[in-house]
Amino acid sequence: MIGAIVSAVIIGAIVGALGRLLVPGKQNMSIGLTLIVGIVAALIGTAIASALGVANTRGINWIEHIIQIVLAVIGVLLVTRMGIGRGRGGRSRGTTAR
Question: Which family does the record assign (predicted)?
């Protein structure tokens, strides 16, 4: 159980970071939000790969990882378009300096 949680966090961090790297421009997202997007993308990507029958392959499962990264890119785009950013410390779109 603990191993699965640690694996989900590590894979989520990698997938989320790759998703942010592939989205052009600056994303106003915290590390925690990047991690959440990555974990969700990894879980949904694994479910999609399982449904397609490509989840269990020998060696590195490139198809599953590509699905996860594409979902992370979509997640990063959705989060940045919705204006969810750094929370209390950061400025969101539409605010003006005082």
Answer: Belongs to the UPF0410 family.
